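Most newcomers find our protein records easier to grasp once they have seen one. Nothing more is needed to start thinking about how sequence determines fold. Here is such a record, shown just as it appears in the course material:
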Amino acid sequence: SVSQRRVEAAFNMDGVRGYMRVTQRHPSEPAVISYDLFGLENNIKLVTIRELPLATRTSPDNSRLCSTLGAVFDPRRVMSFTSSSNAGPTGADYRPTIDLIPVGNLSAKHGPLSVIDSEYEDHYMGEFTDHNLQLYGTHSISGRSILIHKNNGEPWVCATLQHLDRPVHIAVASFYYPVVGQIVFQQPSNDPHAETSVLVEVYNPNGVDKPSDQLA
């Protein structure tokens, strides 16, 4: 039988703390996204799921770290279609339907995050249902990341979506010369039929500053 899956992005960066959690009970059911966050300072207009997790080579510069997560997760290549001459109607009054919004563009589908009245200041909490996100199969968002932008669009704080309640087997191939880095394989240890995610993070220490990241 297929068991429920949950992943969580735990934020603790630049004064922002809390989580965004995704739960899906079955591949045929929608995903439920819940969040409980503090310290956003009303930067709630743009939240996206990105293709890649945070790099293992940490950086003290959050904007730099959160700028290396790849593009908005878009397995159906919707952005390629909407940017072509066949994209259909455009203009200030045009609002695309859900099928023309990238899967990872949470704000375009669900709107800004919600501030709540509580004993704490700058507190945001809510929940929404998404029929396009998957925690199963090739297009799973597990192991990718969530990026919260400043309201001006600048990348701000980010966190990797990690499995909850499920131990994970990890195998690592490390490289030291002539390139440096690692290839990481991850699979839930209690489900041998589950997907294996593969993260490739290698770079040339002799002049190439940015690592080559891929997540399959």
